[in-house]
Design goal:
Length: 302
């Protein structure tokens, strides 16, 4: 029997599962007392619908290179979970945000350029030279690992957040909490895959230096997009150039409804430290406790 350690650092099986949401009643200000945070969270539905399809494509590309049985199973479960996440957020756009007259606009179009064109196997239709193809794959898997570091940390943040104190709609809250909990559950996979494909520390640091500002600015752009379509919000604050926008973000963070830039910066530093292990960044028990009580998970089982 081989004593070689597995390339997987997840000491459990990752479980893909289906969910069922009822999008008939949720209001635009799903955090009744916090319009800004309502938009700052909902914009993730556009970002994730598109971004997680990209994750699935990159991981399907990488799968034939995985030589470890457990990591192979992790990657397959990861792809299945992310596909369900992407679909669930797509359904929330179709059944909830569209019903309220909200669209993705330029935000959605720019996400498509980022995920479908720039980060594809053939960026803007140009195939990389043969000697760079593996490196390009490692780069994109590493970018997913850096993003997944945040999705897992965001999972912890939202499982701990007291959204109910701001009058949360239970269906939207459950969408993001169930998703966040599964992000915690599969938090090891992208980084394990990156390591397995030969990804090292210097590139990891470079990737985080790119992912941190990109993610914060994408989140900001998405929030602006939704604010512009909300007649109850001050038009002059619906811009990344407006100090009012950043003040509103800070206020939402002080209320504990969304993390701010300080939080994102702090968490980026955890990812670049030499002994980084995603397994130690969150609690699987906390995630599974939520998943096992999630109304959307239970609704699908019955
Ligand atoms: Fe996800
Ligand atoms: Fe994920």
């Amino acid at each position: 029997m081989s004593t070689r350690p597995s390339a997987s650092s997840a000491p459990y099986d990752i479980v893909p599962r289906e969910v069922k949401f009822n999008w008939g009643d949720s209001p635009l200000h799903w955090l009744k007392d916090d319009a800004f945070a309502s938009h700052a969270v909902n914009e993730f539905s556009y970002l994730l619908t598109q971004g997680e399809k990209f994750f699935c494509r990159v991981f399907r590309e990488a799968l034939p290179l995985v030589k470890d049985k457990k990591l192979c199973a992790d990657v397959q479960a990861f792809i299945k979970q992310e596909a369900v996440h992407s679909r669930a957020h797509h359904d929330s756009i179709e059944g909830y945000l569209k019903r309220l007259g909200i669209g993705g606009g330029d935000f959605e179009r720019n996400n498509a350029v980022l995920f479908d064109q720039l980060l594809s196997a053939e960026p803007f239709g140009r195939k990389p030279p043969r000697f760079l193809q593996k490196q390009w794959l490692v780069f994109r898997v590493g970018a997913v690992a850096a993003i997944e570091h945040f999705t897992s940390a965001l999972g912890v943040y939202i499982l701990d957040a007291n959204w109910e104190g701001s009058g949360a709609d239970p269906v939207v809250a459950d969408l993001f909490r169930w998703h966040g909990a599964e992000e915690i559950e599969h938090r090891t996979v992208a980084y394990d895959l990156y390591r397995h494909l030969g990804g090292r520390w210097p590139l990891r640091t470079l990737l985080m230096a790119i992912v941190l500002p990109t993610l914060v600015l994408r989140m900001g752009a998405g929030t602006v997009e939704l604010m512009r379509q909300d007649p109850s919000m001050k038009k002059k604050n619906a811009s990344l150039m407006s100090p009012g926008f950043w003040y509103a973000w800070r206020q939402a963070a002080v209320r504990g409804n969304v993390p701010d830039i300080v939080w994102f910066t702090f968490h980026s530093l955890r990812f670049v430290r030499p002994g980084y292990e995603p397994l130690h960044e969150a609690s699987t028990e906390q995630a599974l406790a939520y998943i096992n009580s999630s109304p959307a998970v239970l609704a699908h089982q019955h």
